[in-house]
Amino acid sequence: MNTVGWVFILVAGLLVRGLTKGRTITDLPGDLSDLFTAFVTADQGKVSEVLKRTGSGQTPASSEVLAAESSIGVGDAAVGSSLLDEVKRLGSAGHYKWGGTGSGNGYDCSGLIWRAMKNTNVYTGLRFTTLTFSVMARNRITSVDASRATVGDIVVWTDHMGIVDGKGTYYSALSVRSGIKTTPINTHKGAPKYYRPLIKSASSGFSGGLEGNPGKAADDVIPSGAGSSAAADRG
């Protein structure tokens, strides 16, 4: 059997199993994306987690997207504020540009997050897109449940991304028409995933938090090969 045949069997099997366990059609793209990432990174634990998923992964109501403010610790709030402040600083002086990472102050959704993460030393690697973010930045982020997402967490769909900036809202480079602004999370189709940024500590380990002083912006040129994958982003 060729590769296409095996892919078809995998998709069909995951769909049938998911529907019998309370998953929905809209959950399938996210499940497949996670399964593919787990195979690429040889993460057997993640493969098992995806195959054991039950219930719907639909985006929760706005009031449920963030934990109550009282449950957000001072440290978490400080972490979120640092990255969010940098994203908004860039966005306030910028405009939407497909594939943009800051040249001429133009950004698309992933380009804006990438630039802010580089400026705050959270991530210093090659340009990522919405589809490659969880793999390329895997050593700088940790996945969090939607019910525990806080301000400053990164919200990612298969075709879009941004940063949580309030209860049920996120800040992102949306489109040429809509520009760069805050908008409700539930206005974008599909169930997103949430990631919390990590930084390398002085002891070479990783900890949840951001350094206080943003670093100098890196070269605006998108690395060779990264530009073509930007087509995966909607915004």
Give descriptors for this structure.
single chain; alpha+beta; endopeptidase fold (from Nostoc punctiforme); 2 domains; two-stranded parallel sheet; 10 strands; 17% strand
Mind explaining what this structure looks like?
- It is a single chain.
- With 235 residues, this protein is α+β, with helices and mostly antiparallel strands.
- It has two domains: 3-51; 62-232, endopeptidase fold (from Nostoc punctiforme), CATH 3.90.1720.10.
- Helix content is 34%, strand content 17%.
- The strands form three sheets. Strands 3-8-4-5-6-7 form a six-stranded antiparallel sheet.
- A hairpin with a 3-residue loop joins strand 6 (169-175) and strand 7.
Main CATH class of the largest domain: Alpha Beta
Q: Roughly how much helix do the residues carry, as a percent range?
A: 25-40%
Q: How are the strands of the biggest sheet laid out side by side?
A: 3-8-4-5-6-7
The helix tally amounts to 8
Domain count: the total is 2
Radius of gyration: 18 Å
- Give the CA-CA distance, first to last residue: 37 Å
Mean pLDDT: 73
CATH topology of the largest domain: endopeptidase fold (from Nostoc punctiforme)
- Classified in CATH, the superfamily of the largest domain is endopeptidase domain like (from Nostoc punctiforme)
Q: What percent strand?
A: 15-25%
Provide a brief overview of the structure.
By secondary structure, the chain is of the alpha+beta class.
List the helices and strands and how they pair.
Elements: H1 3-20, H2 28-40, H3 44-51, H4 62-65, H5 74-92, E1 95-96, E2 106-107, H6 109-119, H7 133-136, E3 141-144, E4 154-156, E5 161-166, E6 169-175, E7 179-184, E8 193-197, E9 199-200, E10 206-207, H8 226-229
Parallel strand pairs: 1-2
Antiparallel strand pairs: 3-8, 4-5, 4-8, 5-6, 6-7, 9-10
Helix pairs in contact: 2-3, 5-6
